[in-house]
Design brief:
The protein folds into two domains: 18-85 and 111-201 and 209-219, P-loop containing nucleotide triphosphate hydrolases (Rossmann fold), CATH 3.40.50; 226-326, Helicase, Ruva Protein, domain 3 (Orthogonal Bundle). Helix 12 (288-299) runs antiparallel to helix 14 (316-326). The strands form five sheets. It has a five-stranded parallel β-sheet. A two-stranded parallel sheet has the order 2-11. Strands 4-5 form a two-stranded antiparallel sheet. It is an alpha/beta fold. It has helices at residues 3-16, 19-28, 35-47, 61-70, 87-91, 125-137, 172-175, 189-198, 213-223, 230-244, 264-280, 288-299, 307-311, 316-326; strands at 51-54, 72-73, 76-80, 92-97, 102-107, 114-118, 139-142, 145-148, 154-159, 180-183, 211-212, 258-260, 304-305.
Length: 330
């Protein structure tokens, strides 16, 4: 790309991305700290991709998703997943009308723009598979009828990593459908003090919509135009291939620690998310720093460790970190 073209693209991205600060300010009225999580939620929205949030209870995962939905003029539904949930409770079902002697479709809560799947790992496999069709195909089948879901459509799922009783771990194939798996941590001491003070207020602030659904669809097309150099593309491919064949990239000791490497979906997610991260930083081009910023979130749930790694207490996140440290930066 010529310098003049890149300068023009930079100017356009800077103009189009001005809403980012407004959006973050509105969400910040309710959410204190958790900048990492909030930014990733916005990136998921810009990438038209789903996000899995993992963290102990009380870290504002649910509140963050609700705040994001409130800051966008879209429909929002929260679904509390439980072991007795049925697919019909999620997608809807056919209801018999005795007066007209026919069946009609009653749509479920999945028919919304932003879906909060709270504690997704508490739902049985049938419910998880019903959600999977909605996530991947952007459509729902009820009886013999198929319904397209509205655009934008975003599933933000939460799960609690410390509880095992009454849970159904998500299969690797389903986890791979999420672009990000976010590891949400505790707030700092200063942030927790602010949280305490904010929650004893008589009248907490309300979030106002700052962007429309059609604006999100427009911005997605802008994000796809962000320039990515060939060297950056090769760097992304090298990172993913290193998770499959670590010995080829100077990591022979990690061959027995990785059962399965990242799929090509990880390659696509790295490229798309890096563009969105550059957009968040008001840039019209991708740098290695963008890849590093979102790399762990894209790869931590796609690198499946072996029994040997578990025995040695080596996590997938540690392996991903080593890959980033070893693969040469362009």
């Amino acid at each position: 790309m010529q310098r003049a073209e890149l300068n023009a693209l930079n100017a356009r991205i800077e103009s189009e991305s001005t809403f980012i600060e407004k959006l973050l300010v509105e969400i910040g009225k309710i959410i204190i700290g958790q900048k990492y999580m909030v930014e990733r939620l916005v990136i998921g929205l810009l990438c038209n991709s789903h996000i899995l949030l993992e963290g102990v209870p009380g870290l504002a995962k649910t509140t963050s998703v609700q705040s994001l939905a409130s800051a966008i003029s879209t429909t929002f539904k929260r679904i509390q997943f439980t072991p007795d949930l049925l697919p019909a409770d999620l997608i809807g079902t056919l209801i018999y009308n005795p007066q007209q002697a026919n069946f009609y479709v009653k749509k479920g809560p999945i028919f919304a723009n932003i879906i909060l799947a709270d504690e997704i790992n508490r739902a049985p496999a049938k419910v998880q598979s019903a959600l999977l069709e909605a996530m991947q195909e952007r459509q729902i089948t009820i009886g013999d009828q198929t319904f397209r879901l509205e655009d934008p459509f975003l599933v933000l799922a939460t799960q609690n990593p410390i509880e095992q009783e009454g849970t159904y771990p998500l299969p690797e194939a389903q986890v791979d459908r999420f672009m990000f798996k976010l590891s949400v941590d505790y707030p700092s001491r200063e942030e927790e003090l602010q949280i305490l003070r904010w929650n004893v207020q008589d009248k907490p602030e309300e979030i106002k919509p700052v962007i429309q659904a059609e604006d999100i669809i427009h911005l997605r097309s802008i994000v796809r135009q962000i320039y990515m150099d060939t060297k950056i593309e090769n760097y992304i491919v090298d990172l993913v291939c290193a998770s499959r064949r670590p010995a080829d990239y100077g990591l022979p000791d990690y061959t027995d620690l990785i059962e399965y490497g990242a799929s090509p979906r990880a390659t696509i997610s790295l490229a798309v998310a890096a563009r969105a991260h550059a957009f968040m930083r008001h840039r019209g081009y991708v740098t290695p720093a963008d890849i590093h910023a979102i790399g762990k979130d894209v790869l931590r749930h796609r690198v499946i460790i072996s029994y040997e790694a578990e025995a040695r207490e080596i996590s997938s996140e540690q392996i991903v970190q080593k890959i980033f440290e070893t693969v040469e930066i362009p």
